[in-house]
Every structure is written in C-alpha cells, then in structure tokens.
Design brief:
Length: 92
C-alpha cells in the first residue's frame, strides 16, 4: 500500500492560529462617555448591514456594550445614523 501526499500531511503538527487577546477599548483608554453625536466612531461597532456588532466580536465589556448600543440607537433616532444600511461601510 503506497502512501500518498494526503496521508503525509497529517504527520506534521497542526498549526494553531494564535489570536490577540480581546480587550475593552473603553476601559483601556479610560473613556467614560460614548458620544452619540459622533457617527464615525459609532460605525466601528456596526456591520455593513447596519446591525450592532456583539461583544464577542468587538471585545467590549458588558457595561460599555450597553452604552454603545444606547448611543447607536439615539443616533439612529435623530437621523445621524441609518437604521438599515445597504453597503454602509463602502459609502464612508
């Protein structure tokens, strides 16, 4: 029985993807208030469809995630940010 290249690739150790540890940027920078009138900053926490990104993707703590969500909702209410964005990131 001859060994093929596909059998040999499992003999080498599998490379493990090392990711950077997530951190809360608000705690690190000492930001206490999230300004809802700054849409450019709030676009970092919104995906291209206009949905608010979850904590597990952004690394934000629960305290500040609630404040980010409230700021985005306020900005949407006074029409600074759109509720639904078709290709929202491309228009910036």
């Amino acid at each position: 029985m001859a060994q093929t290249n596909s059998d040999i690739r499992y003999l080498t150790p599998i490379t493990v993807d090392v990711r950077k540890k997530k951190y809360c940027r608000f705690k690190k920078l000492g930001i206490k208030y999230i300004d809802y009138k700054d849409p450019q900053y709030l676009f970092r926490f919104v995906n291209d469809q206009g949905k608010i990104l979850p904590r597990r993707l952004t690394g934000t703590s629960s305290k500040y995630q609630k404040k980010v969500a409230q700021a985005i909702k306020r900005a949407r209410h006074i029409a600074i940010m759109p509720y639904i964005g078709d290709n929202l990131k491309e228009t910036k």
